[in-house]
Amino acid sequence: PVLDTEDAWMSVEGPVSIVELALEQKRIHYPLVEHQFVLCTILYAIMRLSLKGVKPLALFDSKGKNAFFKDLTSIQLLPSGDMDSNVLSIRQQFLLKVVSAAVQTLCSSQKDREVSEEEYFPFEKGKNWPTLAADLAQYLQISEDLVRRHYVCELYSYGMDHLGEE
Question: What does pTM read for this prediction?
Fold first, then answer.
């Protein structure tokens, strides 16, 4: 972009403006940032839902693991559409664990006392963990329908039939 400046500002001395500094920065490789976001979401779900025995880097192939340790401005080889079936199986198990833990946490808190999901997760208003798992399934190349079906089964198994029907 061209920055037009008035003549009065041309003679001003001092530090470089923040706009000029921003324009001098290298462009980031957006798919690499998106890849990092998926890892952050996975780590947050593990922490927030207290999932045990999950190895986050096992959810990625060798290309995906290598991409985590590169500069965000570099163009990296990211995982392609063809994925090892073992990795896909681990991903599927992880997403189903997230859904199960979210439903279990919600139902156990509601049985203790009538508490809504927003009250149980006060800093996460509007965060629906099963929906987040379904969205994450798209990035992890897992069927969203499989995650949603598991969510409905979990709701029915915990006696939340009215939510399962929806």
Answer: 0.74
Can you tell me the distance from the alpha carbon of 154 to that of 99, in angstroms, rounded to the nearest whole number? 8
Spell out the residues 6+ positions from residue 17 whose beta carbon is closer than 8 angstroms to its own.
Answer: none
Structure tokens at 97: 């664990």
Q: What is the pLDDT of residues 6-52, one digit of tens each?
A: 777 667 778 877 888 888 888 888 888 899 999 999 999 999 988 98
Spatial separation of the C-alpha atoms in residues 109 and 106, rounded to whole Å: 5
User: Which comes out higher in pLDDT, residue 102 or 1?
Assistant: 102
Quick one: which of 65, 63, 88 has its CA closest to 77? 63
> From CA 153, how far away is CA 155, in angstroms rounded?
5
Side chain identity at residue 140, one-letter code: L
